[in-house]
Amino acid sequence: MHYFRSSALAFSCIAMLFFSCKPEKDPRILNLPKTDLTQADLIPKPSTTKATYSAFPLDQYTAIHTAPDSLGFNDVGLFLAAKIKDLVELDIPVNTEYPNQESVIYIHQSDSLSKINQESYFLKINKDSIVLSAGSSAGAFRGIQTLRQLIPLKANDSIIDYPVWPIASGTINDTPLFAYRGAMLDVARHFFTVEEVKKYIDLLAYYKYNMLHLHLTDDQGWRIEIKSWPKLTEIGGATEVGDEPGGFYTQEDYKTIVEYAAQNHITIIPEVDMPGHTNAASVAYPFLNGNGKTPEIYRGTHVGFSTFDTRKDTVYTFIDDVVREISALTPGPYFHIGGDESHVTKKEDYIYFVNKAEKIVQRYNKIMIGWDEVVTADIDTTSIAQFWSSTDNAKMAVAKNLKIIMSPANKAYLDMKYDLESEYGLSWAGYVPIDTAYIWKPESYENIPQENILGIEAPLWSETVSNISELEYLAFPRAIGFAELNWSQPENRDWENYKVRLGNQVPFLEKNNVNYYPSPLIEWKTESAPPKTIKE
Ligand code: TNX
Fold first, then answer.
1. 72 and 213 both lie in a single domain
2. Looking at residue 379, what DSSP letter applies?
3. Which residues catalyse the reaction (predicted)?
4. Model confidence at 508: pLDDT above 80
5. Which of 89, 262, 334, 462 has the most CB atoms in a 10 Å sphere around its CB?
6. Phi/psi at 454 (nearest 5 deg)?
7. How many domains does the chain have?
8. If you take atom 9 of ligand 1, which residue's CA is the nearest one?
């Protein structure tokens, strides 16, 4: 009897090997370890999470199926498949014929969700399927980031004879707190290559950022090709802070960045800083200069010494060309005119300048953004103020009913040193350790009403950093905290709980070769954490 049973088993195994090259889906898959979705290390923390304590088996039988391509959902499916391939080496088919329908990730369009918010999504993880619903491909893309964060790095290979990555089951309902979740990169003080910017975009997208502001010009360099004014990059592109060689983006390079960002559902915001911070432009075209001195190349880190000549018509012809050419390459709705620290521009000249620059930006159908000083001019309520230092300016912005981007330097500046030990960074706004960067309420900061606030943008000025590794040291982990402040509901944010989830980002950061500051405030999980399971 015993003998008979085992020989029958052997026979069916041989038959199975004979008829199929892939092993059959093992029924023991249903016995995946118990999980608890509410304990997952998700950043930003979702609005609501419910656990059902089992798991979806991500494995060689999984396929992705999406809503029709016209809505951009196919691209989101392909993006997910590519990230799964990078992470666990599985080839997951997207919208192709698949033999096994028991293990499918569906990505659906849902009109009811788009009524809440274009970026909202609903994720339902079952034992045999994952259903991601979103109003738009942007919402689906945000949901995909959540799903990526739920995939364990290590397969649960003790269960069956092929690898399975169990994804904790349950439901997640998620909506962003703020519509504008930004980072800024200063490519003017030090130049960063297209590849470096792409890597930063990858990391920002993982944490659900949707805006990347590029500070393209400053005293030390001009970084974007303007075809009608070629010396800007011929001369202005050849310098940066210190001895390094500078660099610039051709218009094709810039398009590459814009397209790559768009694939990551991130909008690029170009900034041409004016009328101050313009030494590099004036070196290239001295007629622009308004500070009464002969412009000379500048490789230092002082601010506030340069200005355009605000009363010359040809200066506005120049600005019109620059705004027109950059706007034509920029699908996003915004154009940033800078406007900060114009210490050698007379007040009345500054106001005159900002009023005229705003009209030029509007002529090319863009919404003007400026650093908080621009509110001292007569700007339209459609323009946006970026609060970085002056609460008086922030209050004036509220009085004028402007929308405000929150970048208070003592909280949100990624270029401030963490502490005494910091290798890079400045400290004019104080040290910004990661608890200071996390424990504040952007939605009620300095009595600015929440309805005026678009969201936080975390600027990274590059006087002290010159390559991606140094950039990452300042940005990570603080940029991860701003992602949570921007996305998660205030009642879901908690420093103690965040600390644990942040410590568990190490496998992701290491896998992506990210140079983060290992702050002593956090218990970093340097070994890839196994999937969280509950003992039965
Ligand atoms: C202030 S923030 C600046 C920048 C500097 C930065 C350094 C702002 C609008 N202007 O020009 O790079 O401080 O932290």
1. no
2. -
3. 341
4. yes
5. 462
6. -85, -35
7. 2
8. 340
